[in-house]
Amino acid sequence: MKVSITVDGTLREDDVEPRLLLVQYLRDVLGGGTNVGCDTSNCGACTVLLDGASVKSCTVLAVQANGRQVSTIRSLAAGGTWHPLQDAFRAEHGLQCGYCTPGMVMSAVDLLNRNPDPTAEEVRMGLAGNLCRCTGYQNIVKAVRGAAAVLREASAGEG
Amino acid sequence: MIPREFDYVCPSSLEEVFAALREQPGDAKLLAGGHSLLPLMKLRLASPELLIDLSGVPGLRGVRDGGDFLSVGAMTTYSDVIDDPLVQRHCRPLAEVAGCVGDPQVRHRGTIGGALAHGDGAGDVPTLALALDAELVARGPVGSRVISASDFFIGWFQTALAEDEVLTEIRVPKLNEPWGFDYQKFTVSEQGWAIVGSCALVRCENGRISDARVSLTNMAPAPVRARETERLLVSAPARDDVLSLAAEAAPVGTEPGSDLTADADYRRHLAQVLTRRALDRALASSRGEFSGSGMPAR
């Protein structure tokens, strides 16, 4: 089936099998932007934004993204400058092996879009669909709250 | 994990959905949010020949005021209802239960109608639909019919929907009177399925319980009402000993299964404990002591 999907701002047109998962489309057809973790919609390593909402791309068919916008971690530093979340994950040591990080960051993008000033508890609830097996949650929560402060300051500066 | 091959269509009207169902009777599956169906297909526990995606059919998503009820479109996602002002105002239990399903990503995709039509006895929304006495609207090629939640769930992944019907709408009552509510769910992991869940909806007037509806998740092949618990509560004083006795009766008439996570005896025990907690919190919420139970932070 022919699909047109805007991935990280670029319109892609491909002929895909209906059973091709969005995560496979992103990785095997387009060459990356997210990871496959559990492949059972538990771990959240494959989280991307679909029309702005975080989804587990192992549980979405590529054909379901037809006509829609997909954003992966690759969209964040598009201008060559790191996104405040990327900076904060680095500064707070919000990762060890880094495998969960693309999904973790994209879930955090979604969370901060909806709630620009989350409490630590709200960050934990917002990231409940993302597992980190290096047990780095403490620093991930710190990173997300730190990035939230930076983003709030930036938007206050714009206003 | 890769599903078996299938054909996919994304019709833009219900008439086209009915036509697609007619062409492939028995081998077609309707696709809503896909968060129950796609995992089953990846495990190859389900292998439909045709997937009919309902996302292109207009009018199936959103909540509208139906007078003395709210009409929830079958394709309305969990996160849609959590944020919906009508749901917040008239039927908070729906927002609370939707908020305890899965995790944010699952709630962005999973739909109320999909959860009901899937008919999983471990699902949270079916249990709530039963306690609310919700009505489900099924449309078929020759017209529509309204099915009460108590007639809808008939067995293990089995519902009253016919093969040529589409669940289009769920009607939930407006709870404008002082109903207290709580849903307790016991899971292995934060975003896991309920090993057992207990849903309590109670009304209390002058220290006496005037109405009580209690339903249970994963205590039978389909969600069940805890009728004996309800009988012991209605017209009784809202006292500790009454609640304890009623909660102990929660497993009466249920048929819990045994699996890797819990055996039947443990499930009966959980049903009692969770029902007691749900009743306590429901009564407290009817007195305004809690703003809610399972509401997530967002």
SSE layout and pairings?
The complex is a heterodimer of chains A (159) and B (298).
Chain A: E1 2-7, E2 10-15, H1 22-29, E3 47-50, E4 53-56, E5 69-71, H2 84-91, H3 101-114, H4 120-126, H5 137-158
Parallel strand pairs in A: 1-5
Antiparallel strand pairs in A: 1-2, 3-4, 3-5
Chain B: E1 7-9, H1 14-23, E2 28-31, H2 37-42, E3 50-53, E4 63-65, E5 69-73, H3 78-83, H4 85-90, H5 92-99, H6 104-109, H7 112-118, H8 124-131, E6 135-140, E7 143-148, H9 149-152, E8 153-155, E9 158-159, E10 166-173, E11 179-186, E12 196-205, E13 208-217, E14 224-225, H10 227-233, H11 240-248, H12 264-286
Parallel strand pairs in B: 1-3, 2-3
Antiparallel strand pairs in B: 4-5, 5-10, 6-7, 6-10, 8-9, 11-12, 12-13, 13-14
Helix pairs in contact in B: 10-11, 11-12
Characterize the structure shown.
The complex is a heterodimer of chains A (159) and B (298). Chain A has 159 residues and is an alpha+beta fold. Chain A has two domains: 2-75, Ubiquitin-like (UB roll); 84-158, Orthogonal Bundle (DNA polymerase, domain 1), CATH 1.10.150.120. Chain A has helices at residues 22-29, 84-91, 101-114, 120-126, 137-158; strands spanning 2-7, 10-15, 47-50, 53-56, 69-71. Chain A has a five-stranded mixed sheet with strand order 2-1-5-3-4, covered by helices on one side. In chain A, strand 3 (47-50) and strand 4 (53-56) form a beta hairpin. In chain A, helix 2 runs antiparallel to helix 5. The longest helix of chain A has 22 residues, at 137-158. The termini of chain A are far apart. Chain B is an alpha+beta fold and 298 residues long. Chain B folds into three domains: 7-56, Uridine Diphospho-n-acetylenolpyruvylglucosamine Reductase, domain 2 (2-Layer Sandwich); 63-172, Uridine Diphospho-n-acetylenolpyruvylglucosamine Reductase, domain 3, CATH 3.30.465; 180-286, CO dehydrogenase flavoprotein, C-terminal domain (Enolase-like, domain 1), CATH 3.30.390.50. Chain B contains twelve helices and 14 strands. A five-stranded antiparallel sheet of chain B has the order 4-5-10-6-7. In chain B, helix 10 packs antiparallel against helix 11 and helix 11 (240-248) runs antiparallel to helix 12. Chain B is globular. The model of chain B is unreliable at 291-298 (pLDDT under 50). The interface between A and B is medium-sized, with 36 and 33 residues.
